[in-house]
Amino acid sequence: MIRFIVDSTAYAPKEYLEAHRISVVPLSVFVRDREYVEGAPGTFAPVYEDCARSKVIPTTSLPSTQAFLDAFNAVTKDGDEAVCLTISSTLSGTYNNARLAAGLSEHADRISVLDSGSAAQEIFLLLQDLVEMAEQGCSRAQIAEALPSLREKVGIVFVPETLENLRRGGRISLISAALGDILKIKPVLQFREGVLSCAKKVLGSAMAIAAVLDRIPKAAVRKIGVLKVSACQQFERLKEKIRAKFPNTPLFEGDIGPVIGAHVGPAFGLCWITA
To answer: Are 38 and 257 in contact (CB under 8 A)?
Structure first.
């Protein structure tokens, strides 16, 4: 039997993880001198509240090699195989630590470590397809071989409500942030091929929602996730727009956790997978 392991930045719902016996290896967030081990969606509020009070950008910590080794051993000790799917190696060293751990395991021949090339609920979309393949009888090799083509079918975009967190994190200048907030400029951020970039800049939240909707491909979309970071004011508006535009497409709601979200601040966005 193939069992799956993910790191916490997949932000998969607890119910899904339990139903498919998926293990999670968490990353950590440090706000000043306090450590938060990133949990499941629905548990992120205390971290975001602490970030808002302290007005600091948190630092993050990778799972240790030992944490992955423990997870691999727990899965393989009774003969099961393990597939580990991690956050993109362009964003984190998590993938490298997982690979090191796999090499140290007594059952390395039963472990595959895969770089999702993705972030947040994009990983969750990939995970669902890979789990379905395993449940249909596909091998670890077939699952690994399918991942590159699946990566081409997923996408994620999001819009920060303010530019303050990006400024504090050094991603934009003080002047740019001040002008952007005064003029209500909203960057539409995307993550593609391992690179975070600004796809577009628009004026105001209404145009930002329209721009996010426009990023969804013309090809048939199988699933859409409506995403938020912290308490985002535009989340419900975006959800209504998506339901109106894609009434027959399965929709889920997703919370982006603090390892990724705290650097952006309150934000809204979408992820999807095409047929």
So the answer is: yes
Angle between helices 94-104 and 65-76 (to 10 degrees): 50
Position 256 in a domain: yes
Specify whether 123 is located in the same domain as 202.
no
Q: What is the pLDDT of residues 50-63, one digit of tens each?
A: 988 887 778 899 99
SS in 3 state form for the chain?
CEEEEEEHHHCCCHHHHHHCCCEEECCEEEECCEEEECCCCCCCHHHHHHHHHHCCCCEEECCCHHHHHHHHHHHHCCCCEEEEEECCCCCCCHHHHHHHHHHHCCCHHHEEEEECCCCCHHHHHHHHHHHHHHHCCCCHHHHHHHHHHHHCCEEEEEEECCCHHHHHCCCCCHHHHHHHHHHCEEEEEEEECCEEEEEEEEECHHHHHHHHHHCCCCCCEEEEEEEEECCCCCHHHHHHHHHHHCCCCCEEEEECCHHHHCCCCCEEEEEEEEC
What confidence tens digit (pLDDT) does each residue in 134-181 have? 999 999 999 999 999 999 999 999 898 876 666 555 544 333 433 445
Residue 217's domain comprises: 154-274
Among 124, 150, 176, where does a domain finish? 150
Asked if residue 138 and residue 7 are part of one domain, the reply reads yes
Q: Does any domain span residue 239?
A: yes
Does residue 238 contact residue 212 with C-beta atoms inside 8 Å? yes
**196 and 89, same structural domain?**
no
